[in-house]
Amino acid sequence: MAFHQAQADGVCLRHPDVLGVHQNLTHEAAVNLLIRSITIAQTTPFVWGYIDRPTEGQLYLVFMAPALPFPVDGIRYQEQEQRYSIPVGSGRELEIMEVKFGFIPGMDQTAFRVRRRYRFSKAGPAQLVLVHYSRGPSMPVIPTLMNQPIRQYPLRNYNEPAVYVMGERQGQKLYPNAPGGIPPGADRMQPMPPSAIGAGFGNPQAMLAQQSNNMEALERRSQRERDRSGSVNTAKVQSEVEVLQAKAASRQAAREAAQLSDVSMDGLSAPISEGMQA
User: Fold this and answer.
1) Does 262 fall in a domain?
2) Are 75 and 115 in contact (CB under 8 A)?
3) 118 and 22 in contact (C-beta within 8 Å)?
4) Rounded CA separation 195/54 (Å)
5) Which of the residues 9, 15, 96, 251 has the least number of beta carbons within 10 Å of its own beta carbon?
6) Cβ atoms of residues 233 and 179 within 8 Å
7) Residue 34 is part of which domain span?
8) Are 51 and 60 within 8 A, CB to CB?
């Protein structure tokens, strides 16, 4: 992949799933999700893909260097991104990056879209970033920008393998056809429907519980992938052991056959020698 071209196109390295739809995301929920995302990122390979014209409430987990600008996401914003940090306990500090008054050219009549990014600026991996889209106060769209696309369409196709971004397997690539690989088109997976959230809308406690359930589901899937990978490795080792045992048995049988042959020859040669002496 040509990195500079991919960066210009807005390609990012992210978790293969959209992490549900959440109308609101509190600081507490963001902290809990980031903490649990550390485990998820160690066991699930991330994919190269786009965030493009996301709907309200969509939540993504992205891996990127803090110094890099956020990739183009199909939304044009009419203000600069603001950032601030707050202490969240255990020595951690949560950085929030917020940009408002966004709109999708050719689709929105007013600029009402908000993007917030969350990451640990202290006592946590700063490369893991939660990205949440929501609705905020609106303002008129600048007429000259109304129909100017923020990126070129159709989007360029990048067929890059998934990669582990953290943990013991960091940097290891995983191709789609490999055991436990990411299914083709994972970067285009659809978010959970609103019906899956149920009463979570507008209820912070219910939403936090739903977000926790989403992360637990991801953790269970990661555990199944680890178990499946372990089963494959165990079967491979067992097969190799059986081959070695078969070879050892074959060598033992050959030695026994040779010994029997030697005994038989000795038994035959003794009478012949005696007869010659007589």
Assistant:
1) no
2) yes
3) no
4) 18
5) 251
6) no
7) 3-232
8) yes
Average pLDDT for 262-267: 37
Residue 177 placed within a domain:
yes
Q: Which of 53-62, 76-85, 112-121, 183-192 has the lowest mean pLDDT?
A: 183-192
243 found inside a domain: no
Report the number of distinct structural domains present in the chain: 1
Mean pLDDT of the chain: 77
In this predicted structure, what is the pLDDT of residue 158? Answer: 87
Range list of H helices, the chain: 3-9, 27-43, 204-277
Residue 225 dihedral angles phi and psi, to the nearest 5°: -65, -40
> Which tokens hold the place of 268?
């035959």
Contact in structure between 18 and 192 (CB atoms under 8 Å): yes
Strand partners, 139: 111
Kindly report the backbone phi and psi dihedral angles of residue 196, in degrees, each rounded to the nearest multiple of 5, phi listed first.
-75, -20
Residues in the chain: 278
